[in-house]
């Protein structure tokens, strides 16, 4: 497939005299990489890589326009011209590599975070935050004017720093959206009541930015689709508001996302949601506006998705964010007819939103160079000065990445895998409902290794003698981990296994179909992550009656930071899965589990045909230990050092191969 197939995707577009080389936007998102409020080399490398990779327009992460808008540790410093020379480095990196540079300007209004801002949240009517339990301050007319000026001065700084334009943020029920929405705007002055009054602030912001920054400066607007929330603006009302701005040509483009602080899970929709989620609103606005281009955003992961949105006339531009975090060269590969070489986003949110939600800078499960471009040379590889023979033992995520990157750098690579297929336990995760993107990634690795002429040997159980016989210059051990023997519950550390003597099945054995549980199944989830939750989901979909027992206060505790836990619980509830939280199993005889509350010690009995245990695996490090004992040089990576999430295995693989 080539750019001739992606006909619409690779047509140029024009904004305020600036030519976009294609229709692919790298949309705004909080990378959270600032230090002391200014962009760093981490930012420069991050955005430069996406420009090198072919994105036509890059919208740099949002600038808070006022101290009340500061939301994260890594936010930029508001209201301070000292940021300008730092941003010039970012804009030079973007524009110097052929992309148009935009910065988003934002104010979260009532949904502020005093932990970082140390400032009261400002809002139209003083309503409470949906970010936390704080309230907000009803703005005076003077404070509204102060905030408008904050937007304008931020835009001026952007122009002076070399940005081609700004994107004014009115999405997710942010401040401007709060003024638009009757539920949150209960004012009776010139800023509330009628549509004209409710839109006065946004119209003033955009009019004054144009006046300050000039006719050649791009001004965009970001809005969001929230049809499932009654008090949010519905599409028809939002279309009327956007049309009001468009009639006066206040913006050059409008970006259509999904979700809000009312339903945060749709802002960065995971694989539980359908693809192309933002296109319905985009299509409505496309039929409404006369001047502005329309950008569709939200879960448009692939060039194929993007092309379909454009060819159907539902949008003029397409924002692919997580897809270009996962593969910053997505656009260039698609244009060159190499779409099968694109490393597809897993829609998991684990290291992008998952790290941002913990106030770290973002990265990516499958692209550990994300956020480290400035140290690791981007997602490109420097050939090794002296190619060597590299022997990798284990074809799970760590071994796959080590083998691929070593081969990319010119080394001769042999990969030995004990089973008859690649992927390790990661493949089992891909068998859970709606997680087949993991299998797509493993297929991608298989294609890459084949193209790179890696010698992949299946069914090879490697012993020390095999390593010695191979005679490789570098030996990388990536043998992964294995399920625990028995069932050690962290809530009951005094017991190595559950009393009672009943058989306990591992989640891995169930997903691999090595064990076939009966009709009624208890899933004892000691991790609060996809291993237990996804296994329970699979069993329920297959017709089993499932009860999840967890020591945590809610099912899917570890999935909260990925903004996936509530949609998952809804899916489980729809399948009649029962939840028993803050509990542990104190006796299991193979037929009845005695379950004790960790709060008050009360017990209940649950009859079941099988008990499935999902817990942290144990490092499979016997080969590493024996090599160490015999003094044979090697490097151990991934789960055979300590069982962790796949992101850290892939990181280990990339890092060790870069160092060879």
Written description of the protein model:
The longest helix is centred in the first third of the chain and has 20 residues, at 141-160. It is globular, with a radius of gyration of 26 Å. With 660 residues, it is an alpha/beta fold. α1 packs parallel to α2 (84-95), α4 (141-160) runs parallel beside α7 (200-213) and α15 (397-408) runs parallel beside α23 (646-658). Helix content is 32%, strand content 18%. The strands form seven sheets. Strands 3-4-5-8-9-10-11-12 form an eight-stranded parallel β-barrel, surrounded by seven helices. Strands 15-14-13-16-27 form a five-stranded parallel β-sheet, covered by helices on one side. Strands 18-25-19-20-21 form a five-stranded parallel β-sheet.
């Amino acid at each position: 497939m080539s750019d001739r197939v992606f006909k619409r995707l690779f047509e140029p577009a024009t904004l305020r005299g600036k030519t976009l080389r294609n229709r692919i936007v790298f949309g705004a998102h909080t990378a959270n990489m600032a230090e002391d409020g200014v962009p760093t080399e981490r930012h420069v490398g991050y955005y430069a890589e996406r420009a090198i990779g072919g994105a036509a327009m890059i919208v740099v992460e949002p600038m808070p326009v006022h101290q009340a808008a500061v939301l994260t540790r890594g936010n930029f410093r508001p209201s301070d011209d000292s940021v300008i020379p730092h941003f010039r480095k970012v804009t030079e990196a973007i524009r110097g590599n052929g992309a148009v540079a935009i910065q988003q300007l934002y104010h979260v209004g009532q949904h502020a975070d005093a932990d970082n801002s140390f400032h009261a949240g400002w809002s139209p009517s003083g309503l409470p935050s949906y970010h936390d339990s704080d309230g907000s301050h009803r703005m005076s007319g003077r404070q509204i004017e102060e905030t408008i000026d904050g937007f304008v001065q931020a835009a001026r700084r952007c122009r002076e720093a070399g940005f081609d334009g700004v994107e004014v943020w009115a999405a997710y029920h942010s401040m401007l959206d709060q003024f638009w929405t009757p539920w949150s705007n209960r004012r009776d002055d010139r800023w509330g009541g009628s549509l004209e009054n409710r839109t006065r602030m946004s119209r003033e912001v955009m009019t004054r930015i144009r006046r300050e920054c000039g006719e050649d400066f791009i001004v965009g607007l970001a809005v969001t689709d929230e049809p499932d929330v009654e008090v949010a603006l519905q599409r028809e009302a939002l279309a009327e508001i956007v049309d009001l701005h468009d009639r006066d040509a206040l913006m050059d483009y409008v970006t259509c996302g999904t979700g809000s602080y009312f339903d945060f899970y749709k802002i960065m929709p995971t694989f539980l949601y359908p693809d192309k989620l933002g296109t319905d609103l985009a299509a409505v606005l496309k039929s409404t506006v006369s001047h502005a281009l329309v950008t569709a955003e939200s879960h448009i992961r692939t060039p194929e998705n993007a092309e379909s949105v454009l060819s159907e006339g539902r949008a003029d531009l397409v924002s692919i964010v997580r897809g270009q975090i996962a593969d910053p060269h997505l656009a260039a590969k698609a244009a060159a007819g190499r779409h099968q070489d694109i490393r597809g986003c897993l829609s998991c949110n684990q290291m992008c939103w998952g790290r941002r939600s913990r106030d770290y800078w973002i990265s990516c499960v499958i692209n550990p160079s994300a956020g480290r471009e400035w140290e690791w040379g981007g997602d490109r590889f420097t050939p090794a000065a002296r190619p060597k023979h590299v022997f990798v033992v284990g074809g799970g995520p760590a071994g796959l990445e080590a083998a691929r990157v070593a081969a990319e750098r010119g080394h001769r690579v042999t990969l030995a895998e004990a089973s008859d297929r690649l992927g390790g336990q990661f493949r089992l995760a891909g068998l859970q409902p709606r997680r087949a993107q993991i299998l797509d990634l493993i297929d991608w690795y298989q294609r890459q290794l084949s193209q790179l002429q890696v010698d992949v040997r299946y069914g090879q159980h490697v012993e020390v003698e095999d390593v010695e016989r191979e005679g490789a210059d570098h030996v990388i051990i990536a043998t992964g981990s294995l399920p625990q023997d028995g069932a050690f519950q962290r809530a009951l550390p005094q017991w190595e296994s559950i009393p009672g003597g009943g058989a306990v099945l591992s989640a891995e054995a169930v997903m691999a179909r090595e064990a076939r549980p009966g009709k009624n199944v208890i899933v004892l989830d000691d991790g609060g992550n996809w291993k237990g939750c996804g296994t329970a989901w699979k069993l329920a979909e297959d017709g089993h009656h499932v009860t999840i027992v967890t020591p945590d206060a809610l099912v899917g505790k570890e999935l909260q930071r990925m903004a996936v836990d509530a949609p998952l619980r809804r899916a489980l509830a729809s399948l009649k899965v029962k939840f028993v939280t803050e509990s542990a199993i104190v006796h299991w005889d193979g037929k009845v589990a005695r379950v004790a509350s960790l709060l008050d010690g009360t017990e209940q009995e649950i009859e079941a045909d099988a008990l499935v245990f999902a817990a942290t695996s144990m490092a499979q490090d016997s080969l590493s230990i024996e090599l160490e004992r015999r003094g044979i040089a090697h490097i151990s990576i991934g789960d055979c050092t300590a069982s962790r999430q796949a992101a850290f295995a892939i990181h280990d693989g990339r890092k060790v191969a870069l160092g060879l």
